[in-house]
Design brief:
Layout (H helix, E strand, L loop, with lengths): L7 E5 L3 H9 L4 E4 L15 H13 L3 E6 L8 H12 L5 E4 L2 H10 L4 E4 L8 H9 L4 E3 L6 H9 L6 E8 L11 H6 L17 E2 L9 E2 L14 E3 L4 H7 L3 E4 L6 H19 L6 H6 L8 E2 L28 E7 L11 E6 L3 E2 L3 E5 L6 E9 L5 E2 L1 E2 L5 E6 L14 E5 L7
Parallel strand pairs: 1-2, 1-11, 2-3, 3-4, 4-5, 5-6, 6-7, 7-11, 10-12
Antiparallel strand pairs: 7-10, 8-9, 13-14, 13-21, 14-20, 15-19, 16-17, 16-21, 17-18, 17-20
């Protein structure tokens, strides 16, 4: 039996646009960082101004904001962390996500207004540790990704009801335990534990014999070569029931380095799947398929169905032999607010991202709705002239679509326009 009435959907935000997209498409909470201690240098992260705007936007929309401070800290960072926690204490955020128990003490002292969430970086894999962290002041524990459903259920059963358990349900997985990795630092000098990972586990490798370093030997897994540490992405959208019944409080989507479109589309899919579960209905087919319509690696269910750790049956998720991503669609643009703030039934003002032209069949992605397939009838540029091709990114153009009588129109601000890829179409 689950501890909680309704599970939280927690979405990533690597920048302000992603935060707004997550909220528009149904996130209950968002997690993000400014440019200080947030474990993601690949994402843009938030400037001081955008950080305040993000917090205000979340508050305005009734969405919780969790701030990541989950680096593995060095001696030199302690004093700055004290000052940073003091700043966060006045920020009106809801919680801070940390990975180190010493830093946890600093958070309690310098940011007492914020709840403490223990990061997956802490590697919590048992109920005794989770309970002890609760006794030390943690409100929530984000479990290590190496646990099965049975492991998680036992942790939920044997920890206090007030301790919230959070688990990752979607996105990239690291080949190292709970994301702690020295591989990249050894090979490149970039510290993955401070958010600067070049994903060395995704590279292709060769064997070199000590006395023949000019004769590298290929490691062949299949005809494409080898990627011996390249984990599949996680996808648990079809298993919401198992996670809820195990007692999980929060379902977390990975992806602070991802685009606003990725964040919105994946959040939308999980929002619909979660709501369907609580309405005692199966998730609609389009929501289950939506996870395939963003850039992703091959999917697996991670360690969730690998058996209990105590039984020694740890079947890891499969690796993927393809180092690249699966891309079935490309983003044409996102719908922005028109002057006056009103979208007409058949038109939408968008900020462009990729090439498209009149006559193209496209899909419109709106919060909580099945994607609508339609055609572009007309493109109006910024000089109010009709054009047949849009091939410049970040321009504002007005699109008119067919099927204006569709009951899902008008198209709300924050929606996305995308096109299915084909070999003959410019990318």
């Amino acid at each position: 039996m689950a501890k909680y009435e309704k599970v939280e959907l927690l979405s990533p935000a690597g920048e302000l646009d992603s935060l707004k997209s997550a909220i528009a498409f149904g996130a209950d909470a968002v997690y993000f960082a400014d440019k200080n201690f947030g474990m993601r240098t690949a994402s843009k992260n938030f400037s001081e101004s955008d950080f305040e705007k993000g917090l205000e936007f979340a508050r305005k929309n009734g969405v919780k904001a969790y701030i990541t401070v989950n680096i593995v800290p060095s001696n030199e960072e302690i004093e700055n962390l004290k000052n940073y926690f003091s700043f966060l204490n006045t920020s009106k955020a809801n919680a801070v996500i940390i990975s180190d128990i010493g830093i946890m003490e600093l958070a309690k002292k310098y940011a007492p207004a914020l709840d403490i969430h223990i990061s997956t970086q802490a590697g919590v894999t048992n109920y005794y540790t989770a309970k002890k962290l609760y006794e030390l002041g943690a409100k929530r524990v984000v479990l290590a990704r190496e646990l099965s459903i049975e492991d998680i259920a036992l942790i939920c059963e044997k920890t206090p009801a007030n301790l919230e358990i959070e688990c990752f349900v979607h996105g990239a997985m690291c080949m190292s335990f709970s994301g702690r990795c020295l591989l990249a630092q050894y090979l490149t000098g970039r510290d993955a534990n401070h958010g600067d990972c070049p994903q060395a586990c995704r590279w292709e490798y060769k064997i070199v014999e000590a006395k023949r370093d000019n004769m590298p030997i290929d490691l062949i897994e299949d005809q494409t070569g080898t990627t011996i540490m390249n984990a599949q992405d996680m996808c648990m959208i079809e298993h919401i029931d198992d996670l809820v019944n195990a007692g999980v409080k929060s379902l977390k989507i990975e992806g602070r380095a991802k685009s606003a479109y990725y964040t919105g589309a994946i959040t939308n899919a999980y929002r619909v799947a979660i709501d369907s579960y609580y309405n005692n209905q199966p998730a609609p087919k389009w929501a289950l398929e939506e996870v395939n319509n963003v850039s992703h690696r091959a999917y697996s269910t991670g360690f969730y169905y690998s058996g209990k750790m105590s039984e020694g049956r740890r079947t890891p998720p499969s690796q993927t032999y393809n180092t690249g991503y699966i891309r079935n669609y490309k983003l044409l643009g996102n719908v922005i607010e028109k002057p006056g703030g009103v979208q007409s039934n058949s038109k939408a003002l968008i900020e462009t991202r990729n090439y498209f032209q009149t006559g193209d069949t496209v899909e419109i992605i709106m919060p909580g709705k099945e994607p609508i397939k339609t055609k572009i009838c007309e493109i109006i540029d910024k000089s109010n002239a009709a054009i047949t091709v849009s091939n410049k990114p970040m321009e504002k153009v007005l699109l008119e679509f067919e099927n204006a009588e569709n009951t899902h129109f008008p198209i709300p601000t924050g929606s996305f326009i995308r096109k299915e890829l084909s070999d003959s179409y410019p990318s």
